[in-house]
Write a structure and sequence with these properties.
With 169 residues, the protein is mainly alpha-helical. Helix content is 55%, strand content 10%. It is built from six helices and three strands; from the N terminus they run ααβααββαα. A three-stranded antiparallel beta sheet has the order 1-3-2. A hairpin with a 2-residue loop joins strand 2 and strand 3. The longest helix is centred in the first third of the chain and has 25 residues. About 3% of the residues have low confidence.
Length: 169
Amino acid sequence: METPANETRTASLPAHPGAATHAFFSVQEEAFQNLQRTANALMHPVSEMLRGVDLTPTQYNALRILRQVGEDGLPCREIGSRMITRDPDVTRLLDRLELRGLVIRSRDPRDRRVVRARATDEGVSLVNSLDDVMQRCHERQFGELDADELRSLNDMLERIRTMRGSDPA
């Protein structure tokens, strides 16, 4: 018999033998907490790897975005809207990257009110140098899932993120 999605749950099964059980008000709350714990567990090795090149995950994400758009760069507000985790202070984020010579900012010649940022050659090289190691990290993280399971996971996550406008992008 299938459990209704809004049914209150009194306990979940332990994640592993010896783990404590936790009370949840609903399967939605349990799913939410599992998603947060999983995201944190997946992010830890990425953060550690990026620490080795003196980047935060947010800085890496900004550089990846700028590498993707090429020489034209993007207005700062557009960078903020494309970020995985929203950084309320994109200006300071770009300040730190610019100080390291990884990003250049300039006024848009068509609209002087707009500041555009682009990755420097050094910034693109840094992100490129991380591609293989990042790919290996993701393969380790998701290696137990087959392609169909990964597609299904991606479909569910996108559906959750976009339903009822919960995706701020």
